[in-house]
Write a structure and sequence with these properties.
The protein is mainly alpha-helical and 577 residues long. The protein has four domains: 162 residues, no CATH class; 136 residues; 96 residues, no CATH class; 113 residues. It is built from 28 helices and four strands. Strand 3 and strand 4 form a beta hairpin. It is flat and about 105 Å long.
Length: 577
């Protein structure tokens, strides 16, 4: 998890380096001396105080509540790289580093803050001394080297020794196992910041911690199992609907309560696993496989073998699945635990079944979308909701792109069919879903756009044909043609290619029987055909969308049509074209 995201650091950088202050303070006025945001060095460069940078970083780390040593160092790297990139003309007010004596006398939390402050001071001292030559290595700082330089000339053996003694004392205290985690984490980070490593934990000490953790999760899972079996009996035997819903509500409340406790347990488990670099399964112990089976039962409808096949009611409906996934995804650490089902071939079947159900529901929703007058995108709401559900499931279960290719193909086929049904009013709403369609079908290269472009091209002409069949005032024809073409062109990308292919396909190609072509309008609605050519012949409008030769061709066709129109007007009995 990233703590200092790019936007947050960039906003701080903008505030730090800008000269933003009230105009009256900067310029002065009657009785007011002009004030500068920062004092300047001997070269006239503003001196940016390092204290502001240190305060920002430490406050952000404190907001995160729990930060692993690797993460703490990685966030420092992000801070340095962002603040030094494209550095404006300024310098830094470094200040004094914190003394070894002050660091050694402090508690763990303060020690971490002091050591971090010295690392920040060291980095920006390097930046200040290299302002003129713009050392490129500062853009990709070697954190180990910088931390080593921050301790140069100091002996932190006593600090490391005292830190480890404090940790050993803490681990000897009789308290809940998860309360050891922060002490271990702090000791590890202190050692890392002074260039040392936390020694491997003795088996006896580790065994004492995991003994407590295993006992805790075993108790939770025992209660979880009892609740699941009670729930199963209610599902398979209760006939009275009123009593059934009453019992299920109580059971679901109790199950969710125990799930929240297990989620908190797993959160601590994963923290300890990362700090000590040991498998989370080792911390959970023998309960691991039983817990896994219970999660499969509750969330994936995989009933235990103790139940006969005929007595296992299927709850694999979309509504039941949605309810289960809403519960699961609100428990991030249980979700992480269940992610193993996606990665382990032995448990992939229930995950595949879940996604098949979600994809099938999406296809049904797409197929039921109606494009109707005055309700141009009826049914798109359920489609969008289904897409969000699938995307959320893919993110949480880390579904590999190679899985469920047939189901994804069905989604694409349904969406392409929908694009052929769309009209000029609903085209935006339909095609705004394209990015999510590509995302849930893992279409990274957007191959679906080949078919979508074909649909846009074909539908754009038929939209004009439908409009040409209406009785429209001549003054409105050209604006309406422009509106319809633009509605489809804007999604074609690039628009210039849309107009070129449209012109090639429907205007200057040789007319063939039963093949769409603008010449059909010469018979059914000649004023419309004329307006269409006028649209393409308008150099000012089309110069950015059509090659000049195409615009000239449109003018030529328009001149020919106008000549024939005048001839027909003088000879009323003459056939038009």
């Amino acid at each position: 998890m990233t703590i200092l995201n790019e936007n947050k650091v960039q906003a701080f950088r903008d505030s730090l380096y800008s000269d933003d202050m009230p105009e009256i303070m900067r310029r002065g006025g009657e009785g007011l001396t002009p004030v500068k945001k920062y004092p300047e060095d001997e070269n006239g460069y503003p001196l940016v105080p390092i204290k502001r940078i240190t305060r920002f970083f430490l406050e952000e780390m404190e907001k995160a509540q729990f930060v692993l040593p690797d993460q703490h160092i990685e966030e420092l790297y992000t801070l340095f790289r962002t603040l030094i990139h494209d550095l404006p003309e300024l310098s830094f007010d470094i200040g004094d580093s914190i003394s070894q004596e002050d660091i050694q006398d402090a508690d763990n939390k303060t020690t971490i803050e002091f050591l971090t402050t010295n690392v920040i001071i060291t980095y920006f001292h390097l930046a200040k001394t290299n302002l003129e030559n713009r050392d490129e290595s500062l853009l990709n700082p070697d954190m180990l080297s910088i931390m080593k330089q921050s301790t140069a000339g100091r002996d932190y053996k006593r600090l490391v020794s005292n830190t480890l003694k404090g940790l050993i004392f803490s681990l000897s205290q009789d308290k809940p196992w998860f309360e050891y985690i922060e002490d271990i984490n702090d000791a590890d980070l202190i050692c890392r910041l002074v260039g040392a490593r936390l020694p491997s934990m003795e088996k006896t000490t580790l065994g004492a911690i995991t003994g407590k953790s295993r006992q805790e999760i075993a108790g939770y899972n025992e209660m979880f199992t009892k609740l699941l079996y009670t729930r199963a009996r209610t599902i398979t035997t209760e006939k009275n609907k009123k009593e059934y819903f009453k019992s299920m509500e109580k059971l679901d409340t109790a199950i969710y309560g125990i799930l929240k406790k297990m989620d908190r347990f797993l959160a601590m488990t994963y923290r300890l696993s990362q700090i000590l670099d040991i498998p989370s399964r080792f911390i959970i112990g023998d309960t691991f496989s039983k817990l896994r089976q219970n999660m499969l039962w509750l969330f994936f409808d995989v009933w235990p073998k103790a139940y006969e096949q005929g007595k296992m009611p299927s709850q694999r409906t979309v509504s039941a699945l949605r309810h289960r996934m809403n519960i699961l995804f609100n428990l991030p650490h249980i979700t992480r635990f269940c992610r193993e089902f996606t990665q382990n071939p032995a448990f992939q079947t229930p995950v595949n079944d879940l996604f098949r159900l979600l994809f099938k529901a999406l296809v049904n929703n797409i197929n039921h979308v109606s494009i109707e007058e005055n309700n141009n995108s009826a049914g798109l709401g359920p489609v969008e909701s289904a897409l969000f559900e699938i995307r959320r499931a893919i993110e949480n279960f880390d579904l590999h792109e190679s899985r469920l290719t047939d189901e994804k193909k069905e989604v694409k086929t349904a969406y392409i069919s929908l694009s052929y049904k769309t009209d000029v009013e609903s085209i935006d709403a339909v095609l705004n879903l394209c990015d999510m369609i590509c995302e849930v079908t893992h279409d990274k290269d957007r191959e679906i756009m080949v078919s979508i472009r074909a649909a846009l091209m074909e539908k754009s002409f038929f939209t004009l044909a439908e409009y040409a069949a209406q009785k429209v005032a001549p003054k409105d024809v050209i604006p309406e043609i422009s509106k319809r073409l633009h509605a489809f062109a804007v999604h074609y990308r690039p628009q210039r290619e849309f107009y070129r292919i449209f012109f090639d396909t429907y205007v200057i190609s040789k007319p063939r029987p039963n093949v769409p072509h603008y010449t059909r309008f010469l018979i059914s609605n000649r004023p419309f055909a004329q307006a269409m050519l006028m649209r393409f012949a308008d150099y000012k409008t089309m110069k950015n969308f059509l090659p000049e030769s195409y615009i000239e061709k449109a003018n030529q066709l328009l001149d020919d049509l106008l000549k024939k129109t005048r001839t027909t007007a003088w000879n009323p009995g003459m056939e038009a074209l």
